[in-house]
Design brief:
2 helices; rod-shaped; 87% helix
Length: 47
């Protein structure tokens, strides 16, 4: 595997992890918002 392919794989994996984390934080933020915990929701949305 070339260095370029390895780098592309690492970047792809990092994007997937970041997307998963962002989705989890968004879900937590939405839940907090619906519970009227607005400060907590903002914390999740901006993390």
């Amino acid at each position: 595997m070339s260095v370029l392919e390895k780098d592309a794989e690492e970047r792809s994996e990092n994007r997937r992890k970041n997307r998963t984390l962002a989705d989890e934080l968004k879900t937590k933020g939405n839940y907090a918002f619906h519970q009227q915990l607005y400060d907590k929701a903002i914390d999740y949305y901006t993390e």
